[in-house]
Amino acid sequence: MDYSDTIGTTATFSAASSSFSQSTPTVVVSPCAACKILRRRCAKDCVLAPYFPPSEPLKFTIAHRVFGASNIIKFLLELPECQRADAVSSLVYEANARTRDPVYGCAGAICRLQMQVSELQAQLAKARADLLNLQCQQAKLRAFVYKETSGSPQSNTCFLDHNNAGPLWT
Amino acid sequence: MDYSDTIGTTATFSAASSSFSQSTPTVVVSPCAACKILRRRCAKDCVLAPYFPPSEPLKFTIAHRVFGASNIIKFLLELPECQRADAVSSLVYEANARTRDPVYGCAGAICRLQMQVSELQAQLAKARADLLNLQCQQAKLRAFVYKETSGSPQSNTCFLDHNNAGPLWT
């Protein structure tokens, strides 16, 4: 179905849409946000209608501005119906990102997240190296304490409990 | 300048482009990849030419398939020239992501990176908590060792050097 053929051929669906649908059964009572914005007839099998309800016109406006209506329809028709809602969500998300950041869009967010991942990986590697170092020091200390207290069973060595001093991450 | 008006009005630029440019000074010798693919005249002030050289036709093909030529031109014209190269790079990056993953595109990559950041933050928080716990245990041990060895200066307590046992991250 070529939706682009009908773009601009119908006037409006606002006030007259309800009575108009009486004589043309293929037109739904309330056109979807996409057809309303594109000023075209919203057929019963409109591929955009399930994902762009009339209550959310901004959702289509933003996606339309970045990808164009014909591209959005092309993307959806290339996917099985069960994946189309997710595809529309991701397209709207990307279009929002491009609107907020016209230079970098989603790619900018990906770049920032990749840098954050790198920084966190470096911090985690350092924290784990510090832990190993501290565990090594503690093993030496513990050996020393056991040696010093081996002849005095009354010594207060309860903090050497292995439940506390064992490996700290697995 | 409305580039969309000229789309499809020119035949090809392949073999005849060099001689054609002799009589029409506004046409460059080699059309950019965008104009070649769109089969239109590549003017000297073509807004796409600096970013879509004839040597990289795939770059424009992919971006064109996802955003459409008129949208790409619109995005570029809304930006100062110094930001256009970055904008084209990000558009091509996003178009590649959408081609590889038609359902989630760049949004999928962002979702995966956000999950990775959350996991790394949780691992880092745990590693730091473990470090604090271990430092607390070591402080107790150290106090005990100092108490036990205070009367025996010959004891081998060199591993209690503060350079090794101080705070491990700052």
Q: Which assembly state applies to the chains in this document?
A: homodimer
Q: In whole angstroms, how far apart are the ends of chain A?
A: 57 Å
Class computed from helices, strands and strand pairing of chain A: mainly alpha
Number of domains of chain A: 2
Strand content of chain A: under 5%
Number of helices in the DSSP assignment of chain A: 7
Rg over CA atoms of chain A: 32 Å
Order of helix and strand elements from N to C terminus of chain A: HHHHHHH
Count of β-strands of chain A: 0
Could you report the average pLDDT of chain A, rounded to the nearest whole number? 79
Give unreliable regions of chain A as ranges: 1-28, 161-170
Gross morphology of chain A is rod-shaped
Q: Can you summarize the main beta sheet of chain A?
A: none
Largest interface: A-B, 62 and 62 residues
Helix content of chain A: 55-70%
Descriptive report:
2 copies of one chain form a homodimer. Helices cover 60% and strands 0% of the residues of chain A. By secondary structure, chain A is mainly alpha-helical. Chain A folds into 2 domains: 3-100, no CATH class; 104-148. The radius of gyration of chain A is 32 Å and the shape is rod-shaped. The model of chain A is unreliable at 1-28 and 161-170 (pLDDT under 50). Chains A and B meet through helix 3, helix 4, helix 5 and helix 6 of A and helix 3, helix 4, helix 5 and helix 6 of B.
